[in-house]
Amino acid sequence: MKHTKIVDLLTGKNLLHEVKAKGWVRTFRNNQFIALNDGSTINNIQCVVDLDKFPAELLKKIHTGAALSVTGTLVESQGAGQTVEIQVNKLKVYGEANPEEYPIQPKKHSLEFLRENAHLRVRTNIFGAIMRVRSTLSYAVHKYFQENGFFYFNAPIITGSDAEGAGEMFRVTNLDLNNLPRTEEGNINFKEDFFGKTTNLTVSGQLEAETYAMALGSVYTFGPTFRAENSNTSRHLAEFWMIEPEVAFNDLDDNMDLAEDFIKYVIKYTLEKCQDDLVFLDKRLQDEEKNKPQAERSGMSLLEKLNFVVENNFKRVSYTEAVDILRNCKPNKNKKFKYIIDGWGADLQSEHERYLVEKHFKCPVILFDYPAEIKAFYMRMNEDGKTVRAMDILFPGIGEIVGGSEREERYDVLVEKMKAMGIEEEELWWYLDTRKFGTAPHSGFGLGFERLVLFATGMTNIRDVIPFPRTPQSAEF
Amino acid sequence: MKHTKIVDLLTGKNLLHEVKAKGWVRTFRNNQFIALNDGSTINNIQCVVDLDKFPAELLKKIHTGAALSVTGTLVESQGAGQTVEIQVNKLKVYGEANPEEYPIQPKKHSLEFLRENAHLRVRTNIFGAIMRVRSTLSYAVHKYFQENGFFYFNAPIITGSDAEGAGEMFRVTNLDLNNLPRTEEGNINFKEDFFGKTTNLTVSGQLEAETYAMALGSVYTFGPTFRAENSNTSRHLAEFWMIEPEVAFNDLDDNMDLAEDFIKYVIKYTLEKCQDDLVFLDKRLQDEEKNKPQAERSGMSLLEKLNFVVENNFKRVSYTEAVDILRNCKPNKNKKFKYIIDGWGADLQSEHERYLVEKHFKCPVILFDYPAEIKAFYMRMNEDGKTVRAMDILFPGIGEIVGGSEREERYDVLVEKMKAMGIEEEELWWYLDTRKFGTAPHSGFGLGFERLVLFATGMTNIRDVIPFPRTPQSAEF
Questions:
Q1: Which residues belong to any copy of the Aminoacyl-transfer RNA synthetases class-II family profile domain (chains A, B) (predicted)?
Q2: Is the ipTM of this complex over 0.85?
């Protein structure tokens, strides 16, 4: 007899029939009630064991974490909090979990402790919920783009170009570091490396995605990207997943429309599909917040925040307007900001972004038309000659979640900009070709997937929303 | 006025209305007929220009590859091969493409030439078709798993473990190779590297996926994997995308059922969604085959092959049966094989796999129960003590497309096997934990995504089915 997933058993469709469930014991109460979970849902199915029917030495093997196969009749449950349960007829223990050794006991573990046990933490309610939400969000990403005529584009991970400019890169090499080949001049001879030159891990697939947008029209990447930056914060990972749509003929307004519509869609989809997990995470966050001083508490619950994003327009504000607001705001005047805003042109810090989103506008904000000097070489110059068609989307509690722009499609302007920024034309000959042959306006953005998962789950440390986080000094498992 | 994608215009829904299209010129005939393509479909829309309406110097800018915006009335077409066309009223040239310089002219280019222009080759019919099929196959992968209760799992790309054993690995480092830090003993001090130890690019996410399957039940990876092997063949890439489902409580038969059902689903879905692209690729392959000697031609067209896979059962054959067939077959007896099969236990070579699939069974074949000695340490030992519960799926023209197994879930047997194969327990302490706590039978497989795209498109060189291929001595763009 085939077993049925617990998520399907709990619908109660097979009431009074014999069913089989397989999963792991969450708790075993009174030598009678097994709460069994198989990961298909956050909810357990209660399996009721008649003590007299089973040998004591079999029941002794049933501890939290043990793997079981359970066969019995699905009946209406008398207990509170569940609708159906299994009256067990047959019981098989696949694998035990010695309670003296098994780290995941039915009690509250700290997130730090669980991070050290990243290979087991997904067996807890909280990480099970996070990872199911993560999976659903991923699918929503593909669904949105595929249903809107985008093509999935796999940007290369290993890149010979180091001109992407989005951050420090990791080197990829096959050379024997203990015996590096040398040129006659005594330099390392990278011609003998696997790819015949120096290579790095990509920091962004955007430039390559642009070459595809200029042929397929609308494309998106969704893949891992890397930053070799020594940032030990709760918002940075050395390895993270990024989503980068790129659309031919889109200007910056179209780009903002796309980003807003996309984010609303994936959150709405997840609200519909992950109700039980989100209710659990909502309650967890409320419990966490109770321990915080009133002033630090978020005014909204997780579910309220998610619904708010789906139902309200993002506020669109130019960089220049934002600087005016910041210059005149209380924390700036009272010198409560670490970085005081006293003029136009400075890059905004996280404290400023949070002020705008959390205190001033109290909703997601799209900032646009940034000073050219603080933005990347490929962003389109405005008529004013000092701002570029860039946009950042700022989210409450998260900060920057999206960075995008209309791209500089004018060959001469782009070459000029690259010269000014010291980027070699020969490095990016292929990128320049897209402006030389059939160039057209186009726009795109990058969204750090883990920041989206942070927002959707109400978690606060980015290490808790990716299965095996990579950060400075840490690449376990 | 917003523009409409050409794929939507061609449905003819807006007949007699004013429409706008944006795209790139494929051809411009008689100073009158522009074939415009925007990548949304392989089909162009014909735009008819009235010479007298437009200045000659504007029309002079229209060459193959130029980017245009075209506004006009959508009317029924008089010409052959198209149902609707645009009678142009307004015409804007975004970007020209100097025919003296633009490499992608309307003539047959060799695949080698296009590989050197990988940033532009997607502007041809053939690569547009391949990449749309690739995107559709990707989506079908997610759709299949998500609709069948699997959770998407992102395996780490940078790994501190080198025990995966699937092949040579690339090193990832942040050290200054010109000034390597040394320990007192004079060794390279990897404690000063970014992660505080040596790290590599993953060759497989399987071991980590197993830890998630033992909590969430059914999971799958779909991400890049790497092999630093100097294989300059038409079937190997240094960077490729792999799909790795892993399912708790599945035995090897369930695993074979899953793999077969999955492959049939994604091919069926692609047949439905990519009809125009597949018809084009089918015709291309037929033209290619005409240049081959009769004996080397495939008996079936591309569409026939794809339908054959969807409609027929894969043949399941044990390794032992396969060796019997091979030992007694003509090419073995006549010593036509490079590697003669004379006994049980040898690893099968590509020539043997092709014989079984293409000559003997003439359909996809699943081989199972391989000799333990030629397979990985984590595969479950059979009762016979000499074979393991492994399976490979072999496809006509492609060879091995899937490799999988039921995993060794017995702690003691696994530790014994690791010892025998020289794999350190301390390296894989976390993997062993899954067998120590709540172990259960489970199975999974790996499918090289590019091999699937090769099969679905009828292409023969794996460099042609990934946007920017990485191979020995080549990491351009």
A1: 131-467
A2: yes
